[in-house]
């Protein structure tokens, strides 16, 4: 009987070790970021700025609780934001304004994963974005003899005081991993935090999609 109990205990321990799998590694990729602006005072200021195509880079750690479920945490950096171009003309006179907003953001996504197969999984979680820097660059141009550019070092302004530091973005995503640890993933992050800090009652949100590649070390 003792031998049977011992064998059973060893078997249970073996199953536990198999189920609990820890992996970690680097990841990087491309991001498409958008900003929505809602002034609350004028319908003309309810708009979505054009996407900004940028990058992200960092690392991840995955803890597989069982064959089907796991948890994942990441630390990434990405210069998110958006851009906007306004063009008007009257007769022979042309006027154009181009604005680019950049949020230097430290991203900390935390997610739960479901493994459909050994290599294919889906995930859902929350991305905690810490906005480290916020800058806006506006260039004004016209077909008049002199181009106009706003003051402040090639039209760049520090708007960090006008932007809140925390951007919460729930997300869903998919991942496919090869047997050698190389993986590819994609996700969409919906910004729900109001980033406006100017006290006017308006709302600014930042959402972004990501597609990337990485490599996982560890495992059994």
TrEMBL record:
<dbReference type="InterPro" id="IPR011250">
    <property type="entry name" value="OMP/PagP_B-barrel"/>
</dbReference>
<feature type="domain" description="Outer membrane protein beta-barrel">
    <location>
        <begin position="19"/>
        <end position="196"/>
    </location>
</feature>
<protein>
    <recommendedName>
        <fullName>Outer membrane protein beta-barrel domain-containing protein</fullName>
    </recommendedName>
</protein>
<keyword id="KW-0732">Signal</keyword>
<dbReference type="InterPro" id="IPR025665">
    <property type="entry name" value="Beta-barrel_OMP_2"/>
</dbReference>
<dbReference type="Pfam" id="PF13568">
    <property type="entry name" value="OMP_b-brl_2"/>
</dbReference>
<feature type="signal peptide">
    <location>
        <begin position="1"/>
        <end position="19"/>
    </location>
</feature>
């Amino acid at each position: 009987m003792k031998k049977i109990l011992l064998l059973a205990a060893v078997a249970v321990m073996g199953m536990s070790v198999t189920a609990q799998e820890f992996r970690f590694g680097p990841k990087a990729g491309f991001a498409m970021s958008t900003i929505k602006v809602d002034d609350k005072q004028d319908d003309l200021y309810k708009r979505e700025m054009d996407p900004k195509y940028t990058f992200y880079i960092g690392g991840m750690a995955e803890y597989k609780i069982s064959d089907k479920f796991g948890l994942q945490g990441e630390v990434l950096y990405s210069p998110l934001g958006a851009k906007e171009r306004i063009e008007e003309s009257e007769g022979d006179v042309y006027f154009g304004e181009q604005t680019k907003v950049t949020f230097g953001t430290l991203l900390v996504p935390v997610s739960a994963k479901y493994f459909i197969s050994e290599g294919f999984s889906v995930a859902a979680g929350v991305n905690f974005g810490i906005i480290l820097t916020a800058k806006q660059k506006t260039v004004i141009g016209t077909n008049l003899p002199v181009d106009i550019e706003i003051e402040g070092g090639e039209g760049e302004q520090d708007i960090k005081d006008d932007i809140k530091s925390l951007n919460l973005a729930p997300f869903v995503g998919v991942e496919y991993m090869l047997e050698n640890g190389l993986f590819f993933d994609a996700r969409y992050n919906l910004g729900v935090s109001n980033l406006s800090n100017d006290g006017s009652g308006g709302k600014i949100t930042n959402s972004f999609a990501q597609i990337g590649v990485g490599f996982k070390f560890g495992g059994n």
